[in-house]
Amino acid sequence: MQQLPQFVRLDSQAVTVLIDCTTKAPALLYFGQKLAQTVTALSVKQLSQRQEAKCSVVNEVPISLTPLSGEGFTGAPGLEVHNDSDAWSMGPSLISVNIENQQQVTLVSLDAHRQLQLTHTFCLDVETNVLMAKTAITNLAQQSVQLNWCAAPTLLLPDHLNYITAFEGRWSNEFQLQQRELFLGSYLRENRKGKTSHDNFPGILCHQHATTELQGECYGFHLGWSGNHRTRIEWLAEGRTYLQMGELLLPGEIQLQAGETYTSPSLYASFSATGFSDLSANFHQFVRNTILSSAQRNKPRPVHYNTWEGIYFDHKVETLQQLADEVAALGVERFVLDDGWFKGRRHDKAGLGDWTVDKTVYPAGLQPLISHVNQLGMEFGIWFEPEMVNPDSDLYRAHPEWVLQTAENAQLAFRNQLVLDLTRPEVTTYLFNAIHAILVEYPAIKYIKWDINRDLNHPGNAQGKPAIHQQTHALYQLIAKIKAAHPGLEIESCSSGGGRIDYGVLQHTDRVWTSDSNDALDRLAIQRGCSFFFPSDVMGAHVGPRDCHTTGRRISIEMRAAVAFFGHMGIEMDPRELTAAEKNTLKHAIALHKQYRSFIHNARLYRLDTDGLSINFGLVNAEKTQALFAYNSVVESGRSLPKRLRFVGLDADKTYRFSLLWPSSFKEHTPSLISAINGQCFQGEVLMKLGMQLPITLPQTSLIFELTAVD
Prior knowledge:
By secondary structure, the chain is an alpha+beta fold.
């Protein structure tokens, strides 16, 4: 019998995790700012002892890593399982603790009576301070058990953090921040869309009311999963608060046979004692170090041109070649042919599933267009929506049984398409072969925009069982198989914009399409919200048409370019609409982006607190020798002058040369406040603490400032 440790301690550069192993079931004792090595876990437990309360149990039930009804816990259990016997009341005991190093541990608990085993795995990334945690349940009995819910490890939250910030939204308006004061009872968010969703991103912040971008304690939590999910933060009547996140399982979705295991999606968590921007810096570096491959990190992100808002379904080879000529002259590096290239796809009512080139539009196939694009020095990419099928398609006519459906329930109409059942091996085989055939015929295709444009409203498989869990894993496996067969192929996760953005899908893809809105004002808020967990290099950001197709708003080319400048930059419009002046402006913006691309996609982000009048942020390199700061006016200030812009994150002891990087010229005269200091040098301390008085500009103006350290 293994001698179990009383406590487990994990340490990173700035975070300590303590797990209490002295009780029957392991529990989180501490997760937060790094403790000195002289601080003992025993002392932390002694200071955490709670006495018997009036009219309460004598010994309070610990909030274990998986709190259970069988143990007497009256909050939300971390596991719900049942069979024809008493599996519902399982109460396992810790039997094994495997401490692999100072950052990783696996804890195994067993209910010998019910023959059910729980395994909790923790890994604390030493450099980025991000904790990865997951829970697994194994059925060791001969009788099958029904699994209703298995959360990632339940985490006890500090009682002085009484605010939460969630990420809400809708199509073309994702990642909207909503702050709420914690209340007695449960804050519960559930997603049943079958994908990550536009309106309910599986991420949440827990913090003090006074926490800002640059000060105060805060925690961030994200479930890396692309299917249904649940988030709960509960403040119990006795004063304790905990967080649970996990996959939301539909009734009957998971049945564990003898020897089978279910593993929860990974929960990613981090802590900052110095505000939200430092918290995001942890997640950004984690994505770059751990989720993205070295090949992704080493290749500069090519500037895109996407055809969608330029021509929609109006595909003509000559027109597309003209577009390629136009955008190549602007400096574009990758041409992405969007929806409309395959058989019968003249509109969104037909063709999905028939992944062969439409010879009525492309009589010689795609090669003439691909060759033209390549001769202009651009890579070629293409759009697929593999998980979907139109009823008006050869595929559906041949295999109507291949769609997710529920008996005797009419399919809800949604963009004229249905969802293919990826849990059928014959479906994923068909999809792999169809995509593989295109990539083999046209080896110059180096990029796929992988889209999914409807919710999974009828998620029943061939057996009539709910299939979101299997569907999501089948998606991951299909993408992995395609990429393995075509080394170097890059894939973008798109779901009508930002409906499938999470660390789960990002492990199999290369970038995300942040939103279908290319409106620069909308994008400022969307990209700001997305940046809490995702770095700029994975966020697709395009310069849209003069008149935005989603909002109808007209925004200057200067501001549209400035907003796209700080992501994975691209263009999505008909470039033939551009005036000569607009072409020059856009060409200059793309050239600047290429010049600063490596810096933008590696620098530390500092979001500045917003008053709603402007959305501002800065990027500073690790050496603090270079910085870019963006001031984005949204609406005109109610005061005579806007506020100061403070250049946070610099080195107080360095001297910096100040310069205006963007725009290259003003429609009016250059504001005198900028002219007076442009090119001058200032101490880092005064730039950070005092900042500069911002000039009066027209609303919807973007200014980008560069600060360069001088010897």
